[in-house]
Each structure stands twice: as C-alpha cells, then as structure tokens.
Amino acid sequence: MRILVVNVNTTESMTKTIGEQATATASPGTEIVPLTPLFGADSVEGNYESHLAAIAVMETVRAYAEPFDAVIQAGYGEHGREGLQELLDVPVVDITEAAASTAQFLGRSYSVVTTLDRAVPLIEDRLALAGLADRCASVRASGLPVLELERDPAAAVKAIAEEAARAVEQDRAEVVCLGCGGMSGLTEAVVERTGVPVVDGVAAAVTIAESLVRMGLTTSKIRTYAPPRPKHFRAWPPAALT
Amino acid sequence: MRILVVNVNTTESMTKTIGEQATATASPGTEIVPLTPLFGADSVEGNYESHLAAIAVMETVRAYAEPFDAVIQAGYGEHGREGLQELLDVPVVDITEAAASTAQFLGRSYSVVTTLDRAVPLIEDRLALAGLADRCASVRASGLPVLELERDPAAAVKAIAEEAARAVEQDRAEVVCLGCGGMSGLTEAVVERTGVPVVDGVAAAVTIAESLVRMGLTTSKIRTYAPPRPKHFRAWPPAALT
Amino acid sequence: MRILVVNVNTTESMTKTIGEQATATASPGTEIVPLTPLFGADSVEGNYESHLAAIAVMETVRAYAEPFDAVIQAGYGEHGREGLQELLDVPVVDITEAAASTAQFLGRSYSVVTTLDRAVPLIEDRLALAGLADRCASVRASGLPVLELERDPAAAVKAIAEEAARAVEQDRAEVVCLGCGGMSGLTEAVVERTGVPVVDGVAAAVTIAESLVRMGLTTSKIRTYAPPRPKHFRAWPPAALT
Amino acid sequence: MRILVVNVNTTESMTKTIGEQATATASPGTEIVPLTPLFGADSVEGNYESHLAAIAVMETVRAYAEPFDAVIQAGYGEHGREGLQELLDVPVVDITEAAASTAQFLGRSYSVVTTLDRAVPLIEDRLALAGLADRCASVRASGLPVLELERDPAAAVKAIAEEAARAVEQDRAEVVCLGCGGMSGLTEAVVERTGVPVVDGVAAAVTIAESLVRMGLTTSKIRTYAPPRPKHFRAWPPAALT
Amino acid sequence: MRILVVNVNTTESMTKTIGEQATATASPGTEIVPLTPLFGADSVEGNYESHLAAIAVMETVRAYAEPFDAVIQAGYGEHGREGLQELLDVPVVDITEAAASTAQFLGRSYSVVTTLDRAVPLIEDRLALAGLADRCASVRASGLPVLELERDPAAAVKAIAEEAARAVEQDRAEVVCLGCGGMSGLTEAVVERTGVPVVDGVAAAVTIAESLVRMGLTTSKIRTYAPPRPKHFRAWPPAALT
Amino acid sequence: MRILVVNVNTTESMTKTIGEQATATASPGTEIVPLTPLFGADSVEGNYESHLAAIAVMETVRAYAEPFDAVIQAGYGEHGREGLQELLDVPVVDITEAAASTAQFLGRSYSVVTTLDRAVPLIEDRLALAGLADRCASVRASGLPVLELERDPAAAVKAIAEEAARAVEQDRAEVVCLGCGGMSGLTEAVVERTGVPVVDGVAAAVTIAESLVRMGLTTSKIRTYAPPRPKHFRAWPPAALT
C-alpha cells in the first residue's frame, strides 16, 4: 500500500526526517510518500500558519496525481484533519491523535512535550476535540522553536528530555508523546532520561494507517465527513497551483 | 469607530444582508464595513470550505488598507477566529460565540438552529472550544442549504421556525440562536412561533465589538494570540492577492 | 435608557464608587441609578450575608418606584440573580457573569482576583452554574476584606496586582477579572503589573445591559424565569420596608 | 439527640407531615423538632421564594432558643444550605443531597420526580453544585403544584407514580427520589408502580444527621463554612423577628 | 441486625481492627461479623490482588451460612462491589464510597490519604465510577505499605497526618478521608494535626448500612445489579472452598 | 511474534471463533494463540462473572508456559485489563478499548451494540475509565444473550443490525463497534444495513498489539502498572490450577 505522509511546513529537510521515520516504521510492502505542502510557512508555530497549513495540506494532497491508500497529516496540534476526511475516501490519520491514542494503551496517563509555549493551546484544543484529553496529564513546552530541532539537535534533546522528566515527576505522566513531527529520533534519549515509554506520532500514525487499510476500514461518510457539496469558487485554487 | 464585518463566503448578496443587519444594530458613530473574502466558496457548508474561509478571511482583512477598530467574523461555526486574533491588535468577535454568549444572559439554556445537518458538528466543536457548550441544549439543522435562505425566504422562515419550536419543546431551550450569518431578518418570525428570545449573531457581535472598543479592551497578546513569529513563506500569498 | 446598578452591601460609599464606574462606561443617553439595598450587611463576605443580599437586592428593586430598562447586580459571586430574572421583565446582568463573558472574548483563559479566600468558593459556584468555568484558569484571593479596598487603597492595589501577576504566571491566565464590585479604579494598576487585559465587572455589565436593551432582548419567560406564582406570604415583606 | 427539621414554606400542615415522616424514621432517643419558617411563602416554587426561604430558614434556626444537635433543611432544590453551615457548629443536611447520596448506594443511576416543571432547574443546579449529578438520570416534573399534594393526594400519587415509571423506563433510572419535602407517604405507591427502590429525602436526611452526630462529625470550619465575620447590619433582622 | 464487614486481605489482625472499629460505631442491637477472605493476598496493593480480592470477598460472603442484613466491603479503592450487589438481596456498602459520601456533608471538598502511591489510581477510578470525584480535592499517598500500619503505628500516624496536612494546605481539602480499611484509630491524630473533620470509611459504612436497613431500602434489581443469570462453571469454585 | 488472545468465558467454540477472527487479521509472521480461561463461566453477562473472568484470565496467562509478545483480552466491557498490565512486561490490549480507539479514527462519534441490556453499564464504565467515552454516542443492547450468537446466528445478525441502525439514525453514530468478542463475522451484515464502518474489537486489538510490538512499546511500569509487590497468599492459586 502507499501512504502519503504530509509535512505541515515547507522545510524540505523536515519532510525528509518525517519520511525517514515513517519508512523505518512501515511494514514491508508499504510505500511511504513524504510530501511538502505546495505553499505555506517554513515552520508552523501558531494559528495563522496552522490555518494556512490546513488548506495547503488539503490542496497538496488533492494535487497528488497517483493513487494512494491513506494519508497522514504530520503536524502536531494543527488544524485541518477534518477537511482531509471530507475530501478523501481513504483513511486520514493525524499524528497528534495517533500518538495520544497509542499512549493510552501504554499507561494510565500521558504527557505531550512540544516546542514553543504558544503551541500548547493548539495541542490541547486538538486533543479535546478528539476526545483524547481525559488521560492527558499535561502538554508541556521545551521552549525550542521548531527549526531549532534541526539547527542544534544536542540542545534540543536535552531540553526536551528535561521537560519530559518534569511531566513524569510533577504531572505523574506514565507515557510521553513527542509533540512535533520533527522530533523523530529523540525517542531513545527521552526514554533513557525518564524511564517511561515514549511515543513518536509519525511512527504511531503509520501503524494506525496501515491497520485501517488492512482491516478495510475508512472514514464514515454518513454525516460529518460527507464529501463537500458542489460549489462555485472565487480565485481558488490560485493559478500557480493548478 | 469602524468595524469590519467579514462574510465567510463569496456571495456578495449575503455580504450585503450581513452588512445591513450590522448597520441596523450599530450605534451612531459606528461605521460598518462589510467585506467579502477575496477567495473561497460561494457558501460554506463543511470543513474544507470552512478551512479555506478561515485563511481567506485572514488574508482579506490583512489586505484591507484603511484603519479599523474591530473585526467580526460573520460565519456560524467556522474555523479561523484564533488566527485573526494573532494577526490583529484590535478585538475580534466570532458570531457563533457572540450569539451564545448573549443567549446565556437571557435564559438557562439555548439552542442553535442552523442550515444543513453537516454544519451541526462544526458548530458544536466551536462552542466546545469556546467554553460555551454547557448551557447549549442542542444544535439543530433545518435541512436548508445556505443559499436557499436567499432563494426561497418564505420556506426558510417556516423550516427554521419549526425547528426552533422543536428545540424549545423537546430540548427545553429557553433561547434560540439563529445559526447562520445569513439568517438576519428571520428573528421576528421565530420569536412569534416560539415565544422565546431569538438572538442574531451578527447583531450580538456588533454590540460586543463596540463594547470592547469602548472599554479599551482588546485581545491578550501574552501567549495564545501573540503575533505570528517571522517566517519564510513558499508561494504565499498568491500573486493574484498581492 | 435607565439602568439600576444595585450594590449588594449597605456601604453607601461603595455604592457611590460602583455608580461612578457605571456612569463612566455608560453611553450617552443612559442614566445610571445606583442603589443601596434597603437592608443587609455592610460587606458581603460569605454565604449568610450573600443569601441576605440576594433577597435584599430583590426587594430593593421591587421597591423602586420609577420605570427602568435593565438591572445590574453589582456583587461578585453573590446569590440571587435568578430571582431577579423571575421578578422582572427587563434584562438582569450579574457582574460576575458579565466579566467572565467579556474576558472570554479577549484571551483563551481568564482568572478572577477577589478579596478574601472565603469568597473563592462562591465565585467558583456562580461561574460553574453559569457555564462559564471551562476557561477559568483560577479564582484567587488577595486576602483583603471588602472594606479594606476603601480604607487603604494603595495596599489594596498592590495586593491585588501581585495576585493577578501570579494568576498570569502560574495559572497561565491571559485575562484578569477584578472580582469585587468595589475594585473599579484598580484596572490600570493591574494592567501595568501584568501586561494582560483587565476586565471590570461593572463596566462589562453596563455594556451588556445596554446592548440587550438596544437589541430588544430580555429574559426568557418560558420556564426557569417565569414570573412567580401567586402566594400567601407570612410576615413578609417586613413592615419597615413597605 | 435533638434534630431540627425545618420546612421551607409557611404551610403548617406540611411542616406537620414532614415532622411525622422524620419522627417515623428517627432512632429511639432522637427528638425531632419540626419548624416552620418565621416568614416566607406558603409554598416555594421558584427562585424568588427559594431565596426568601433560604434566609428565613437561617433566621428561624437562629431564633430557636434551645440547644440542638443537627439541622435538616427540608426543601427540595432550595437555596441556603451553605449559609446554615456557616452559622452553625452542628451538622446541616439538605434533603435534596441526602436523597441523592442515599440513592447512589442503591443503584447505578437515580431520577428525581418533583412537582412543577419550574422546579427542575433548581434541583439540577443543587445536584450539580453538590457533585451529585453524574449519576442523576433525570429530574422530572409531575406537573402538580406543591400544595396540590395535600389537596388531592390520590391524584398526586397517580401523577407522581406515572412520572417515576417514565424515569425508570425511558431514562433508565434504577432508583427514584421523591423530589419534594411533602411527598413523604407516597413511597409505597411509587415502589409498587415502578419496582425500584424509592428514597424519601426527609427520611434519608434523618439517618444521615443522626449518623454524623453519632460519629462526632460536623461541618469543616476551615474555609468555605467558617463563621460569618462581624458585620454592621442595616434594618436586619426585622423588628418583628427579634 | 447483623452486618458482615469483610476485609479484603487475609491478614487476620487487620480484620480484627476493622471489626473493632465497626463495632465501636454500630448501634445497640447491631451485630458486626468481621470476615477474612477465604483466599487471597495478605495485603492488597495493586490491581492483581484487588481483582483477586473482589472474587474472594464474593465467595466468602456466599459461603457464609447464617442470615445477615447488610455487607460492608472494607477495602479502600478495591474492585468488586458491583458483583456483591448482583449476588445479594441486602444492601452492600463500599468503604471508599461511604467515606466520600459522608465527607461531602461536612465540607466543600475532601481529600483521601492512602498508603502507597500505586493505590492512588485505583481509588481515583472507584470515585470516578461512583460519581463522587467532583468534590475530591486529591488522593494522596503517605508512602507506607498497608502492613506497616500495624508494624509501626507511631510512624504511620506521623506520615499520614503530615500528608493530610498537605492535602488541606495545598489542595484546599476541607475534610480528610482515611484511605485504608486499617487506618481506623488514626482519626484523632489527624484531626489534631489538620483541624478538619476526618472520616473513617468503616465507621461511615456502618452507619450507612444500618440506615439503609432501617429504611427498608436495598439494591435495585431492575437492571445493572439483577441477579446473575444461570451459568455453567468450569473448575469453580475450587474444591477447597466448597 | 506470538499473541495470546484470551477469551473471557469457558465456551471453547467461542474461543475458536475469536481465534479465527484474530488469525484472519494478523500479519504474516504473527502467531495467534487462542486461550480459554482455566476456570469461570460459560458466558460472561454481569459483574460476578466478569470479576471471576478477570482473575481467571490473569491466572490462565500466568500458567501459559511459552514465551509470547502481547496479550489480548477478548471480552467486551470486562474487568481485569489493569491486572494483566501489572503482571506482564508485554503489551496488553483490551478489545473494548481497541474497538473504540479505532472507531475514533473513522468518524466523529461511535456506538457500541452489545448483547444484553445488563452489559451496557459495564461497557460504559470501561469506556469512561479508559477516557474513550466522550465520542461514544451510545451503548445499545440487542437483547440477545452471548451464547445465542452461536445458537441462532441468523436471528443474531438481524437483531444486531437493527440495533446498529437505530444507533446511526437516532444517536447519530457515524461508526459502529460490535460489542462482544463473539460477534466477529457479523461485520458485513451490519455495514450493509447501516452504511457506516463497523469495527470488530478482536481485529482492532490484533492490529494494535502488533503495532505496539513492532514499535518496541510496552506498558509503562513507573506507577499504576508496576509489578505486584511480594505477598503471602492464602489458598491461592487453587491446587487444581497449579
């Protein structure tokens, strides 16, 4: 099967990291296609960029010409998964939800450790709407901007592992979710520092997407995610995208 | 003061209706500027169009050249208010929240009557995130598409008033909110049919926006709605918008 | 229009302060009538006095001989708003709810800073019943009794501003509500100390009451707030009040 | 021990009924003292009368000259229990809470069947504040005014038993609470009609008050229910009460 | 009446302590029968032992040959009360729920102080399912294993009283529940240290069981706790138990 | 890898059905080992049998002599998963939670259709404790006892499909979970009748268990699910089991 793994920002190196993580988790026979949005910001750290990413991810998937079996939206706490579910017949998996859903099988409560403090409310909102907040002990920020993860990996590892340790000790989290698509690769260090299972959202999403496809399950079209009704559009999509 | 009232769809006649309703409510000295998004769908009835509207409303407001004192997002249950709050220093009021917030001063519980069934989950989500769902008795759909409100107003009035009556009788709503920016003008008929107060979101939002400006209050910039950080954008905004 | 602004305690100087704040916020053409309860305690700092204030406010409004367009109950976290809504045909606005409702348009979460620790549970209960607790980050007490606000304003300002800063820093509040009818006038100092918007309940209530009147909206009489049924009363109201 | 059982309305025959029910349940050695409020309405069916009853019950208990060991507030869904807890050193038990608390030991969910529809929101609010709403399947109204219970007992029995049956069948209640102080005596008929345990609040409250006294437990005075602080009162209490 | 008070572990000295506490609280005429499970662990400190205790308590009660009027399950936060309710026609009272239910009549919020940290989640889950968690300020662990309560009572008293004080000061608990069947006897020391009412679950359960019997109330059999349907059992009960 | 799939009742034919469903879903290279509890009831339809099954499943897994990589508890709404997590180092997946967790990726809300009405509360409780109840539209009973599924499959299919249709139409479920380990095989008929995705818990659990193993994730041992502490046991395990 072929799974599209769509980054939410336009930084190609981050798309590459995400793609490698997805590929490392994928079953034999699964082809991972990493995609970078056709437009948008080089990092998504707030609502404006996240709303832009939402529509960019949708248009990027719509512009993809080959057949595919599932889509993973690889941004943590971003808007837009519901729109993808309307547009597509194949399963759509958001990494925020995949990580939380997986964490819940591993311990009584989980925490998310993300990048900047301003990302915390977005993640909290997504978890609340997804019905996955009850067992969330906390969403914590390491204080590192997204792109810093690539610029200074050693400092990133340290900051994130320390924040994860606080989640375990102070908030009584029993599992930690790495709250950014680009944090793949930090898992080991955080496990070592905290002694609890650490969930990477991209890996979790790959297994869930594969499982849904394998069971022949896809998005319910009966109501919320029915296909969009026919519309007239003004100035959309932009000429450059078509 | 000047208040921008931004429609979420590209149907100019609906922008006009919304603008008239806002003007009818505005205080002397308030100038209402109705805006139609620079791009997007002619009606917003689902997540794809709503996500597109979110970013379209933001870009439309950013492209507005004159000074203004507040912005009203005049779509019911649509995405994007958080992004506007990041981008702007002036107050932002969403009509979904304005209507609910006003209804709560009038009765113990309120219902929303909207257009299509598929809009119900979007409205429920917005109310939940806004912390305004506890006293919401129900969100009900009349079954009418958005543009039908203009095409056959008499049938619209009847369908909406009947649904509102069911909300009052079956769900024990004590107040009814008209769940669509384009429903201004139906108020009287629904009051007559149900005997309960009926809140129009556009009118409610105008009074709230004016009040915030008058009290010198605007969006807190300390965390969630801090201005976006500097970014590099790919292919955005589209040339046609600049 | 004429709005009655009813203090909950019998300290006339506090009624005066509240009335001045209301007048400063009112639109041209709005007459503010400050009222002191005909009976009750000189400060309300607990359930006994609050229950007494509830009925005192109701009887005081009933004894007011002139016509009026709205009533504001100017006590923070006090009982009784529901009774006023039964008795009156005009809108009733409680300042606890007005402040919270306004704060929710300004930031993702708000805190209330009140006087004594024992007032905290009353405020929490009112917010819970009003469906306004979800986005409440905390209700904090400065430790100052109500009348101390007048006796030593400088100390009051300092204590309240410090507590507000703790709400912002520790509880992540993005907006602060001043949790006492007599705190009008402290707004500026708290803004300066915290850097977040500060909402005064009396001012917020005046704008909401005016808005409801302007939109022709008033309390739903269909169920919870239907007028009291005819009764026989024993020894009530007391001769001195009639 | 001596337990004061305070009616919330001024109808002496109802006080008598309540007193008889309490006496029938009391242990040997417990003296039940039924009290009628010194002022107030002959039936309490809404917020105005309930707020008046709250303060009337408090003043009536304060005016009681003999020592006593506990107080029962025998009104369903009425305001004021918190004030009594501040004023007194002995345990205070509200029948609304006593019934719900007892019902929770008997089945997974319970319903309350009360008098008029307008009493429903008051009861719901009391249960919510008491943290006893999670297992409440419904609060239902029989449509009978309070005083009708005495005027036409046969019709009352029938109406209440039918409503109780609906709670069991439609709302899946496993226990029924009789939602009015004056419904003592209907228990048997409702058991017969529904086949589920039926809890009378007055009886439940007597056993709880006795138990607290027996265990030497009384209201915590550390914070919420600390004694009122010293105050100056205007025109209170009325001369006629002193 | 005769009440079975069933310990959840097989330590006879602890059964004796529990029995003495129950007897000290029981009314004249109530016979307390302390029972030790026929099988199971000498202390219950986790889910495996708790699930084993659940079935052991049920089989032990079923094997009891004499008539009885009520059963108390004297383990804090343990599984199994629902099964007893199915099997028996007489009332069943769990001490976790009895303590919480009683505490709610004494203060606005309560905390539980238990033994080991790993018991905390079990207690939290039981309170959540029982609908008694809303007013629970915290469940805290003293860090002492169950059997240590008997081995070094002086150290136990000190550790538990200190933790209780933290609950009152940091979590704002107004009442403390002793979170272990074997903590009877510590009440006085904790009251002295904290100044708040302290509830012993065994004592509370005895009064509630007696009250239910006195009022002629028992478990609703209409649905959740209907008697088990006829079954074929494999290898159960073990020969040694029959 | 080897996954133990443990039935909760002692009906071997049902263990066989469950095992076949698991095998049909398993990846190449996964060995499914179906297990029947060493003791217990031939069907589990209530709390007594469910508590017995909890401990029986644990002892059966402990008695299994070969190595294994994960365990699936294949009972819907049964007790005991937490105990398995304590006892084992490998992942444990409950089918109730697996089904709900999977359903949440497919639609905005899901319903469970189970056997007898008395199973509904057990399932609701498990979902609540698992933090998976927010998006649960309803748990509905078809009225069929567990063993009837095998005795009259045609009637079972019809009853379950009809109840599923009611969940979709009346409760607005967008996905249906088959609420019994033995319902595997009914999927197709329910999809056909309702038009929504239908999730089988056994299949879902197999994919989740495989995924956890593949990602190297297992139960957090830091607190709630730490291994049992050393204990002395009385009369356990029964001689016949050892």
Please name the defining characteristics of this protein.
homohexamer; 242 residues; alpha/beta; Rossmann fold; four-stranded parallel sheet; 9 helices; 10 strands
> What is the CATH class designation of the largest domain in chain A?
Alpha Beta
User: What's the mean pLDDT score of chain A?
Assistant: 95
Q: How helix-rich are the residues of chain A, as a percent range? A: 40-55%
Biggest beta sheet summary of chain A: 4 strands, parallel
Radius of gyration of chain A, in angstroms, nearest whole number? 17 Å
Could you tell me the CATH topology label of the largest domain in chain A: Rossmann fold
Q: Strand portion of chain A, in percent? A: 15-25%
Could you give the order of strands across the largest sheet of chain A? 2-1-4-5
In angstroms, what separates the terminal alpha carbons of chain A?
Answer: 27 Å
Low-confidence stretches of chain A: none
Supply the helix-strand structural class of chain A. Answer: alpha/beta
| Biggest interface between chains | A-B, 50 and 50 residues
The domain count of chain A comes to 2
CATH architecture level-2 label of the largest domain in chain A: 3-Layer(aba) Sandwich
Oligomer: homohexamer
Task: Assign an overall shape of chain A.
Answer: globular
